[in-house]
Amino acid sequence: MLDPVSLTQQLVGLDTRAGNEKSAAGLLAPILTDAGFSVRTDEPEPGRVNLVARFGSRTPLTLTGHLDTVPADAAGWSFDPLVGDIKDGRLRGRGSSDMKAGVACMVAAATHRVATHPAETDVQLVLTFGEETGCEGAARLEGLTPSPVLLVAEPTANRIVLGHKGVLWLRLTAEGRSAHGSRPELGDNALARLAAAAVRIHEHQDWPRSATHGAATVNVGTFHAGVQPNLVPDHAELMLDIRTIPGFGSDDALLAVERLAGPGTGIERVLDLNGVATDPATALVRDLADVLRPAEADGRPEYATYFTDASVLAQKLDARAVVIYGPGDPDQAHVTDETCSVAAIPEAADAMHRLLAAWSGDRSAVASPSH
Predict the structure, then answer these.
(1) What is the CATH number of the domain that holds 45?
(2) In 5, 19, 120, 275, which residue has its Cα 20 to 30 A from 86's Cα atom?
(3) DSSP per residue over 1-35, as a string?
């Protein structure tokens, strides 16, 4: 098998912070092509590339991951964010956990399966750009082969996760009237009005809770207002990140924010993605879990707080089951000095290889509509 640890190191060394996924696709496309995959890349914007690799002619199992990472300012890190080295059993660098290790495991497992059992393998790899900024690449994808099962290699510390919350990003605006800073009574301070709304939203605690997905959450993520101190600001805007749950969808969240923000506040939807919830009671899911982690096949299902490309891809693929499983540590996602357990990487690659083997070896047990 292609060494997934070494491949992770190579991917971490490529700067795909908030863009330039083309460099990662350029590394992976030849590997997949040489392994016998049919590979296509799309570059709808300069440097922003999706990669889809397909092997086999029957119904595939689909593995997906994103190639971008969130930004990382080296000035705040104790090591180079692109170093990709190993220290004390941890692979270090931006994207090591979220989610270049997961991508490396997918590629290693799929190419090994194709090399050893080509006639029995049906797999589709979907590698996207712009997941961190709202699944932009996944939204652009067309022509995917329908697939009953979608495995998302996001960071779960190699635990089985069966879905995640939805996400709603809202832009709130307030309009006021400018005046000289020495005569604020002549103006209408948009900053102060929107800031008061931000505090009300931030301090609100009574958000609904789901038995499966936990509590809905709201974060005031950005705030912009004013030009200079001696002007009363006549415009202000902020961005909210809302994580929705079953029973409290985006329409419900919008109404709640409208009540808290108060009259005169403009509200615009910027991103609205559904959550994912795979039923753990189905035979299909039990089969998948038993292959990935036999000891946990009957454990309590987990659901993630973050969103994934599954919000978009599950519908495009007509997937009946979404499983999130990857070697990254979810607590390391987006943090300064991000790392990933080295030991978890080959463990995940082996589990994905077992899944591909089970898919081809007993298709009726894993893919039958009767399940």
Answers:
(1) 3.40.630.10
(2) 19
(3) ---HHHHHHHHHTS--BTS-HHHHHHHHHHHHHHT
| 234 classed as catalytic | no
Question: Could you tell me if 60 and 124 lie in one domain?
Answer: yes
Given a contact cutoff of 8 angstroms between Cβ atoms, the answer to whether 117 and 31 are in contact is no
Cα torsion 278, 68, 3, 32: sign = positive
Among 253, 273, 293, which residue terminates a domain? Answer: 273
Nearest to 218 by CA among 265, 194, 254: 254
| CB distance 127 to 67 below 8 Å | yes
Pairing of strands 214-215, 321-324: unpaired
Q: Do residues 207 and 353 share a domain? A: no
Q: Evaluate the CA torsion angle 239, 244, 250, 255 in order and state its sign.
A: negative
Residue 132 bears catalytic tag: yes
Catalytic residue among 21, 68, 154, 237: 68
Phi and psi, residue 216, nearest 5°: -65, 145
Q: What is the pLDDT along the chain (371 residues), one digit of tens a residue?
A: 999 999 999 999 999 998 999 999 999 999 999 999 999 999 999 999 999 999 999 999 999 999 999 999 999 999 999 999 999 999 999 999 999 999 999 999 999 999 999 999 999 999 999 999 999 999 999 999 999 999 999 999 999 999 999 999 999 999 999 999 999 999 999 999 999 999 999 999 999 999 999 999 999 999 999 999 999 999 999 999 999 999 999 999 999 999 999 999 999 999 999 999 999 989 999 899 999 987 665 567 899 999 999 999 999 999 999 999 999 999 999 999 999 999 999 999 999 999 999 998 744 445 443 33
In 84-118, which positions are buried (b, 16+ CB within 10 angstroms) versus exposed (e)? bebeeebbbbbbbbbbbbbbbbbbbbbbbbbeeee
Domain boundary among 273, 304, 333: 273
Which position among 21, 98, 122, 132 bears the catalytic label?
Answer: 132
Give the CA angle between residues 254, 221, 212 to the nearest 5°: 60
What range does the domain containing 137 cover? Answer: 4-164+275-367
Domain count, the chain: 2
Nearest to 338 by CA among 40, 84, 142: 84
